[in-house]
Amino acid sequence: MSKALEMERDSAAMAYDYEVVKEDFAHAGAASSDIKKKCREIGLDKDLIRRIAVMTYEAEINIVIHSEGGVITVMIMGDRIEIWAVDRGPGIEDVALAMTAGYSTAKTSAREMGFGAGMGLPNMKKCCDEFYIESAKGEPTRIKMVIQI
Ligand SMILES: Nc1ncnc2c1ncn2[C@@H]1O[C@H](COP(=O)(O)OP(=O)(O)OP(=O)(O)O)[C@@H](O)[C@H]1O
Ligand SMILES: [Mg+2]
């Protein structure tokens, strides 16, 4: 785990980790369903829950489809929720291009399941208050999303 994530986790009231497995379509969406349930339990506003679910779901699916697998960490802090998505590569060569609506490198198999519109990353960014992405070819992709609650 990175030092930065470790420090954030220390100040979180609650932290949940979800292992996301490469090409495991059967369990894709499990993290976002679980986090949705937890947000309901703490009484968050409906629209906030919807945004958190979208952010988590899109991050989860991207790890399933495009990466070697990774972990989604959701931290509930006093004033905000942070969602971190960190995978094990293969990374994104051109991050600005990947952030462009409509850009997708999804394989035919993923497209046949309805993925590959190239809207996941733009939607994630739109749903949160702060969005950070760090990646490069041959490196892990690290995404941090913050939403004020
Ligand atoms: N975790 C990741 N690892 C490697 N590449 C990624 C990752 N996430 C996104 N990408 C790259 O960025 C592109 C755009 O991602 P985005 O989520 O916006 O669209 P998509 O996943 O292709 O389609 P959609 O999300 O609409 O089903 C992907 O096609 C892929 O090339
Ligand atoms: Mg996507």
Commentary on this structure:
- The protein is globular.
- The model has no long low-confidence stretch (mean pLDDT 95).
- It has six helices and five strands, in the order αβααββαααββ.
- Strand 2 (70-76) and strand 3 form a beta hairpin.
- It has one domain (3-148): Heat Shock Protein 90.
- By secondary structure, it is α+β, with helices and mostly antiparallel strands.
- It has a five-stranded antiparallel beta sheet, with helices on both faces.
- The chain has helices at 3-11, 30-41, 46-66, 95-98, 108-112, 120-127; strands at residues 14-20, 70-76, 80-87, 130-134, 142-148.
- It binds adenosine-5'-triphosphate and magnesium ion (MG).
- The site of adenosine-5'-triphosphate (ATP) has 22 residues, from helix 3 and helix 6.
- Keywords: Kinase, Transferase.
- GO terms for molecular function: kinase activity.
- Residues 53-146 form the Histidine kinase/HSP90-like ATPase domain.
- InterPro entries: HATPase_C_sf (IPR036890), HATPase_dom (IPR003594).
- It comes from Acidaminobacter hydrogenoformans DSM 2784.
